[in-house]
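In the current project phase, work has continued on tokenised descriptions of protein folds. One protein thus recorded appears below exactly as we store it.

——
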Amino acid sequence: MKRVALITGGSRGIGFGVAQELARSGFDVAINGRREASDVGDAIKSLEDLGARVLYCRADVASPEDHASMLASIREAFGRLDVLV
């Protein structure tokens, strides 16, 4: 079973770079951001092309309610979470 990482801000910039490296290293990745899912399609495709299963979690990391929702989505999609970045 592949390890799973959640990368906050993982759809662009440094966070996206980290997500790419984790995907190259064999992780499945959940990336978090505040943009609409339709705006991160290229980032998702790029990570999938590296062999990762990818979940986009639109959420505000400052919101406890969003934390719970994000973790539930990750559990449902992957069954686990191993790394938080």
In short: The chain has a mean pLDDT of 96. The longest strand covers residues 28-33.
